[in-house]
Amino acid sequence: MNERDDTGDMSADGVIAVHAASKTFGARRALDAVSLNVGRGEMIGLIGPSGAGKSTLLRAINGLVVLDTGEGTVEAFGQSVQRAGRVSERVRQVRARIGMVFQQFNLVGRLSLYNNVALGMLGRINVWRGLFGLWPPAEKIAVMQALARVGVADHAGQRAGTLSGGQQQRAAIARALVQGAEVILADEPVASLDPVAARRVMELLCDLNAKDAISVVVSLHQVDYALRYCSRVVALKAGRVVYDGPNTGLDHAKLVEIYGPEIEDAFWEGTPK
Hints:
Layout: E1 14-25, E2 28-39, E3 43-47, H1 54-61, E4 73-76, E5 79-83, E6 86-87, H2 91-95, E7 98-101, H3 113-118, H4 127-131, H5 137-149, H6 165-179, E8 183-187, H7 195-212, E9 215-219, H8 223-229, E10 232-237, E11 240-246, H9 252-259
Parallel strand pairs: 3-9, 3-10, 7-8, 8-9
Antiparallel strand pairs: 1-2, 1-4, 4-5, 5-6, 10-11
């Protein structure tokens, strides 16, 4: 595991640094002084009860949610994403290096799977060429390679909306590959998938992490998936970090502390006791 500084300052091998991040929605405190460092090549599972702040944190890292004014900061690759309640003017440059994968895939259903994945190149080619599908030859090859990497190349010409949820989610990951993402933030990517499709998506994220050294932060409702696939686990509860460490440190007592006694009914066979 990469070394990190609990103050939120980025270490030499860090890619993401969050410091004292707070966010309120009305009377609800979604994030409460959260600090988090992500090292290069880490695979991190982000867990916690519904409403704990997982999605808000991932969106704040990418500048899609603006933090409250104050001392909260987010940096990526040594550049500011946001500070003191204001998003950096250079946030687009940072976002180009961060892939976002959402629970509902964020694909355009009427477009082919190929064109959806190719949209990941819009940050580096002429927008008009992209809108009319005039992809340069090298980029066409890159799209097909990405589709093959995630196992859906045979469906490249199909409309995204006609494919299964698992196939669409793998295409969303392929879009991040075409984008050239160095970090993937996956916000509950398997929540709407059946167990087999969910396992394939998690194994794909692990493969990209292991073979391409892509840092992955994945929020999960399935605690057993976090324990199985992520060497480091970060748990949020009521907007605060209540655990940050190796998956082996999440014993039964700690999970009950995070989720309450109802966690007894949420586990599959083989979970820690």
